[in-house]
Structure prediction request, 322 residues.
Amino acid sequence: MGSVTPDSDFKVTIPVIDISGYLARDAAATASIVSDLHSAAISPGFFQITGHGVSSELRLRVLNTLKAFFALPADRKKRLHRGNSNSLRGYESVGEQRLEAAFADQKEGFMIGEDLPDGKRFLQGPNQWPDEEECPGFRETFMEYFGELRKLSKAMFRLMAEGLGLEKQYFDAFVDSRDSVTMCRAHRYPPTTPEQAGKTRGIGAHSDFGALTFLMQDDIGGLEVFHRPTGTWHPVAPVKDAFVVNIGDMMERWTNNRYTSTLHRVITPASTRDRYSVAFFNEGLLDQVIECIPTCLEPGEKPLYEPVVVEEHLAKRYGNSY
Prediction:
């Protein structure tokens, strides 16, 4: 699918946006942030945010506890396999997911969500955890991070609402209700040799299923985005203290293609170290009907998509990826 790198000097610029002014309730700064986010969501559909309020101490703790978990013996990790869960929570080993037909994903992962022991609906339920003595602090740290990302998500959806000319609370129920699905998945990518670098996929080419994704990545790199007009792939270079944010298919549909859900992948770079990342997926309120937002329809235009219920959309997309 396209070239690995551009054939010319053309490069895709991934904007870096400081949102601290919004969190500090600076009206002038907020207006500029809203405009920058809106532009980035239109194209390229990927951006990075700094000044987000999630402490470096917490982010480092998360990465350290993940390293300890993934270093556990294989049999201990497999006791927590996602196959034990009705809501895809838990561990997956290298090669289980295939997002690009020609490649099995070269990563292992661990997924959590809102801990709902009585949850019966799609992607609802209890998390699985290693014993505390096996991996001290893992559960507490991961859930603390989950809570911080959920708060950050609500702030970002409010900024997007303003950019779309909506009341700032327009997406609040979608992102912050009991039946709002938010999933957080940690990944470890084993290192590869220079001969194999670029020939394997950490994660195959895909677009995200839900509305908005946040990614914390380490400094190794490997994330790439696809530029449709030129058919070329471009790196998303790690930026210190930043989250990578991207628009998902659900938001593209909701905005009648005004916002862009961009294909992306992870190429396993040549390295002697494991690569770690943590993705936080805002998948949406299960009963929400996704139909064209009124401000995304110009006079004389028609919606490009039929209405769809979030739960139906997610069940279909998740089912096709394993």
